[in-house]
Specification:
By secondary structure, this protein is α+β, with helices and mostly antiparallel strands. The protein has one domain: outer membrane lipoprotein receptor (LolB), chain A, CATH 2.50.20. The strands form two sheets. Strands 3-10-11-12-13-14-4-5-6-7-8-9-15 form a 13-stranded mixed beta sheet. A two-stranded parallel ribbon has the order 1-2.
């Protein structure tokens, strides 16, 4: 599970939400890269500093992960609220925390809507099985591109072409267990909590050679409630947290759920990651002040 907030949710090379299609419309990825690019940097940090882990997979931990994954995979549609908090170094050293809240609606095999707000301008993302649209409401600008016919292929193309990444994409995967468990060689049960998500949860820790993730899974409903990740090769040990709430499985969704009239009528910009402004470094571009998407597969 070499991934960003728990596998790809913790997908190490791809941490965040849609935004960053234009320097002027920084809505569409500065959060993806200001708030979750810290994880990308950490993912690229030398991993040799972390001691290699001997395989240790507790059967109960594996069973909990499989039960969670089976519950998610069985849902033909879902809606939930994703609250993502990522740490980034401050100019004096100690980390700062940046948070986004996304209202996520998905329908298999090829529909997705993400309405995101956070420490910066809002952004919206729509996928209807044929096109994907990233929309910046404040600037009233939209980036539209043809999209593959499946959710997984669309997410890969959105990341490859425009640096758009959702840290919760593992929970929407056709096979969440395969996505989350990829590369994992340690998994164990920590215990139970009655605090996270307002429900009783089983707490599981999973680790790969590059990532350590703690996952809270509902005891009764088997739904993921929170994931917290640290990249083992990150010398700063920055934390990346994903909370999931307001779960609805198999809601009936109208076709218009996955489109926006305002986005359709907005002026168009390129569906591509912006180039750095002259004299600005990539690191400078990812700072929230300038703005305002488990190891890669």
């Amino acid at each position: 599970m070499d991934k960003c907030l728990a596998s790809q949710a913790m997908r190490q090379g791809r941490c965040l939400a849609p935004r960053l299609l234009l320097a002027a419309a920084l809505t569409l990825s500065a959060t993806a890269q200001a708030q979750q690019a810290p994880a990308k940097s950490a993912a690229k940090a030398p991993a040799q500093a972390a001691a290699r882990l001997a395989p240790e997979l507790e059967p109960k931990a594996v069973a909990l992960l499989q039960a969670m994954s089976a519950k998610l995979a069985a849902a033909q549609s879902m809606a939930f609220t994703a609250t993502v908090t990522n740490e980034a170094p401050s100019r004096i050293g100690p980390p700062l925390a940046y948070t986004t809240v996304s209202e996520v609606t998905m329908q298999r095999p090829n529909r997705l809507r993400v309405i995101a707000a956070g420490d910066g301008p809002e952004s919206e993302f729509y996928y209807d099985g044929q096109t994907m649209t990233a929309y910046a409401p404040a600037e009233n600008l939209a980036a539209v591109a043809p999209a593959p016919p499946t959710l997984a292929a669309m997410l890969k193309q959105a990341y490859d072409n425009a640096a758009i990444y959702f840290p919760f994409d593992d929970v929407m995967a056709a096979d969440p267990y395969q996505s989350i468990a990829e590369g994992v060689n340690v998994a164990f049960v920590i215990g139970q909590s009655k605090v996270v998500g307002g429900v009783a949860t089983d707490v599981v820790a999973v680790a790969s050679q590059t990532l350590f993730v703690q996952i809270w899974i509902g005891v009764d409903d088997k739904l993921p409630r929170m994931m917290r990740a640290v990249f083992r090769g990150d010398p700063l040990r920055l934390r990346h947290q994903l909370e999931m709430s307001n779960w609805k499985l198999d809601p009936v969704l109208a076709a218009e759920t996955f489109a926006s009239l305002k986005a359709a009528q907005a002026p168009r910009i390129a569906f591509a990651a912006p180039q750095p402004a002259p004299g600005r470094t990539a690191a400078a571009r990812t700072q929230p002040a300038a703005r305002p998407a488990s190891a890669s597969k």
